[in-house]
Amino acid sequence: MIHFSNPCILLVIFQTTFTEVQFGPMKLIKDPLQVLLVFAKEDSQSNGFCWACEKANFRCSIARTPELALECFLEKHHDLVIIDHRHSRHFDAEALCGPDREEASVMPLINAGFNRRYVENANMMACYNELLQLEHGEVRSQFKLRAGKAIFTALEQSQEAIEITSEDQVIQYVNPAYESIMGYQQGELIGKEIIEVPKSEKNKPDLLETINSCIRKGKEWQGIYYAKKKNGDSIQQNVKITPVMGQGGLPILLATVGALMLNLNCVMQNVLSSPDIQSSKHKDRRKGSLDVRSTTSRGSDGSSQRRHSSMARIHSMTIEAPITKVINIINAAQESSPMPVAEALDRVLEILRTTELYSPQLGTKDEDPHTNDLVGGLMTDGLRRLSGNEYIFSTKQPHHIPSHLITPLSLNDIPPRITQTMENEDSWDFDIFNLEAATMKRPLTYLGLKIFSRFGVCEFLNCPEATLRSWLQVIEANYHSTNSYHNSSHAADVLHATAYFLCKERVKQSLDPIDEVAALIAATVHDVDHPGRTNSFLCNAGSELAILYNDTAVLESHHAALAFQITTRDDKCNIFKNIERNEYRTLRQAIIDMVLATEMTKHFEHVNKFVNSINKPLAESVKSILTSPENRILVKRMLIKCADISNPCRPLELCIEWAGRISEEYFAQTDEEKRQGLPVVMPVFDRNTCSIPKSQISFIDYFITDMFDAWDAFADLPNLMQHLDNNFKYWKGLDERKLHSLRPPPE
To answer: Is 304 marked as a binding-site residue?
Structure first.
């Protein structure tokens, strides 16, 4: 109760009359608020409240006597009653509010007494503000409490077993269905700690820790859980535990809903819990199968029973795929959704049932031929239209190093001019083309020696520097110097980018030493023996490599396999020969996984998984995600992917050079496809008509921007993002001038 001097009493009566109130997912719609003014005579104060009611669109009634006030209230049951307390000679306002006076008193109908005083102020805005405070504060709170009672009534009637506990795991509520299924009498469990309730031995030992870990992060947990009934029998539950978050982000309640499988095919659908309303809301059981079309059509041909049986078998499986859980949740949500939402969810389910969840769907070629050709050429395994003139790209024997190239080279023996060229190799702006020229197109060996030494790779592998040198030389010898782009300079550039990323603090926190070594080796070998043609070309040409690897990740599989063949066939270059077997297997698996991650058909899958599993939890300050083995794999994949196609994030001159080289390689492929009568994978890359600026714009828009936004959010790379922005503007400028070349014409 609030007291002020010289008051006019404001008595609040709580009724359910509102225009519209949103309470979690509930929408409560009622008539406008009704206000009763009990004033003995008309004056500026009563007029102030009348004007305020009109401004607020409230309905207002005026009574001059206690008898008329009671009659008026009984007729309309007002939400707010404002009683004048300034002129006691006309009537006693407190007595009118008091429970002792029966005649002309509204108190038999409401809680005793008044609950708010208002300092006399006839200003309309003051009255208006007072009314709004009452509406949005006390009246609406009481209104929501009544809605909360309705929700608990629904929980009481629900056939699903529902349990609510405090953050201290004290049981605060179980509904009758829970008590009935578990064999307890009414109220037996209330107030008990969960640890006092017997647990089944069938649960996995780490299950409780997994559940608690989810709850601490504010996430719900859903899965199979075994509970023990009062009589000692174990019962399998399909359980959802939802934390209801309180102030400060800490869980104050846990709403547990169990679909208990009592008999072979008797399954109860989960109630979906909503933290927004801090309670559970009941939804009807959905007896449909996983086919949403069958459930929305509601056929009466007897198929409903078959679908119910099928659903029961799926729910009773102890191993359930995540996609099945997603589809089940959508099915349940669709049950009580409006028709437009249900139809939209139909479309969602159609998409989820495809196998190509991450593959982009482009428009017609007329919309953006450059993007369409790039995506088609890089993300498919060929058009599968063989002309009869199959191009036989055979698997060749690995190249041996010519004897005149085998030199007793160590870091101390590197010529001064090459050493000087590599002085700033730890900088992102390092110029790989200067090193290419200084080493006569052998940059990988020299840069590899320096970077591997900086990261202590020889010490980790327990191999002599001479072995590492021989290995680098033989790997570089198996890159094709005749390729304009996919040669050892590209490998050296990717190795440089990988080393740069490995020095970033967040990356160092995420990876172990074995991960760093794997990343450096994977970068070195990731395109070894690349023929300068895309996977689509090799598949269309019917090459031996495409046949060997079943048209699936052809080049990437070849790069990884050949790298290990080269390394292990000769002790002189076998950098793995001195490490323990299990460590070798771990290292080998990591290298293979990273090399395969450079294949573009899974580009969007890798980026999306990285964003959802790492970026989003980090944004919510969930640091523990950095150390899980699954997420370390995602970091390594993202690292090598960004290193592999980082050209648009290099300084402008380097970016332009790389753009020219990749364009030339694609031009050569188009020329050969035309000569051989093969399908032209990327028709836009015709050297006579191609716009290089447009192709770069498409590549940046479609592949680079989102990926590097995510990588920058993780590793903090403002300099790269600035280069990317500058380079994009450069290509846009050329395109706006209708230029097709790498550079504008000379002034």
So the answer is: no
CB contact at 8 A, 362 and 371: yes
pLDDT at 277: 29
Contact 637, 714 (CB under 8 A): no
Judge: domain 158-280, CATH 3.30.450.20.
Answer: yes
CATH code given to domain 7-151: 3.40.50
Where are the alpha helices (H) located in 366-461, listed in sequence order? 369-379, 416-421, 432-438, 443-454, 457-461
Does position 539 have pLDDT exceeding 90, yes or no? yes
Order of strands, sheet of 251-261, starting from the edge strand that comes earlier in the sequence: 171-174, 161-166, 251-261, 234-245, 221-228
- Nearest CA-CA partner of 498 in 715, 736, 707: 715
Does CATH place domain 372-736 in 3.40.980.10?
no
Binning pLDDT at 50, 70 and 90, where does residue 87 land? low
Task: Write out the H or E segment, with its range, that includes residue 117.
Answer: strand 116-119
* Residue located via tokens 């801090």: 278
The reply to whether 644 sits in an annotated binding site is yes
Catalytic residue, chosen from 486, 496, 606, 723, is: 486
Q: Any known ligand binding at 3?
A: no
DSSP conformational letter for 199: B
pLDDT of residue 20 exceeding 60 = yes
| Same fold for the pair 7-151 and 372-736 | no
Mean pLDDT of 181-196: 75
Active site residue 486: yes
Q: How far is CA 336 from CA 158, 342, 347, 560, in A?
A: 16, 8, 17, 51
Q: What is the pLDDT of residue 270?
A: 30
**Residue 489 annotated as part of some ligand binding site:** yes
Residue 734 CB neighbour total at 10 angstroms:
20
